[in-house]
Amino acid sequence: MNDLNKYIRLTRGCSVYIEEQENRKCFTSQTDHFHVFDWLENVRLPKTHIPDIVQVRFKNNRVDFFRNVNKLPLQRGELVAVEASPGHDLGVIVLTGELVYKQLRKLEIPRDAEFKVVYRKARPNDIEKWVNAIKREQQVLKRAKEIIEEMGLKMKLGDVEFQGDGTKAIFYYTADNRVDFRELIKVYAAEFRIRVEMRQIGARQESGKLGGIGSCGRELCCITWKNTFISVTTNAARFQELSLNPSKLAGQCGKLKCCLNYELDAYLEARRSFPDTSIPLKTKEGTAYFQKSDVFKQILWYSFDPENSVNMTPVPIERVEKIIEMNRKGKMPDSLLVDNKDAVDIISNKHNLNLKDLIAKNDLKNK
User: Would you state the pLDDT for residue 61?
Assistant: First the structure.
């Protein structure tokens, strides 16, 4: 049992494993990155309710959906034997019931799609094979990397995942160009005496399997909670007025950081109330051109030089809208600001959020 707890905790996320008679469950603590919070857990369902589709987790963050054709009373955390190609695999149930259907809708997977099936709840001999297969993974990974070097292939092997019955293994790799690994598969099959599947993954997926610490000082999002990846473009950085410095915008995977998307919607929503920055502001002092913006202070910075960001003037969005309206009527104000004192007030705390007042206003003790 000690070996079992050791290996399934490290690679399958079972912080606590309980085996009582026919009941075998894998529990994850709320601080564990494999933990899934079921917010419908306390909703009372009829005793006759049997989940039709369940979501099962395998090594690291790999999850898939399976159909419960045998109408087994499955619960979150239980170990189950599921259909694989070929043979069977062993996984941990992470979602059942209504939350599964919400996930299907989110991923745009039809409910009547063809899913592989759940064979049975894991038996003792299933678990024994599973643990023995997991024990082989690190040794096989090390030897597999050596074989790639010996064959001179331009690819990087990141992880190996054995199937629950120990008859097959998935080798995850990354490569910049197309790799002919037909001979490699033959060598692996002869060396390890298993069926071999080569699966190419992207740099983001590789980081999600290997883990690491980000520039923020915290463990990478792709290993702690993020299972799906949305494309990130430099527009996300532009909308947030971030410097387009590749060394700062790129994560450990070498791609743009996923967190660039986290606050993007808030910036886009705030910018909807901003005037059109492509319109130059005509004043008696000259024509001012937009240079940059401060979303949270509601300020736009303008310069009279269209090419260079020099001698910039901060202008509130209300003033910009007023000048644009005057220009439409053929009028021009004397200057961008009402007076010089206005510029001092804009940069000072007059246009900043008073955090002390904001905290006091939202303090629960005052309510």
Answer: 73
- Per-chain mean pLDDT for the chain: 82
Does residue 249 sit within a domain? Answer: yes
Q: How far apart are CA 137 and CA 151, in angstroms?
A: 21
Query: Strand 79-83 relative to strand 116-121: parallel, antiparallel, unpaired?
Result: antiparallel
Q: What is each CA distance from 20 to 23, 120, 235, 298, in whole angstroms?
A: 5, 17, 54, 61
Q: Calculate Rg over the CA atoms of the chain.
A: 29
- pLDDT category of residue 340 using cuts at 50, 70 and 90: low
In angstroms, the CA 344 to CA 350 distance is 9
In whole angstroms, give the CA distance from residue 157 to residue 163: 18
Nearest Cα residue to 103 out of 115, 91, 118, 85: 115
Could you identify the residue written with the tokens 């644009």? 324
Q: What is the CATH number of the domain that holds 140?
A: 3.30.300.20
Same domain, 210 and 161: no
Helix 124-151, helix 182-192: angle, nearest 10:
130
Nearest to 85 by CA among 126, 117, 129, 130: 117
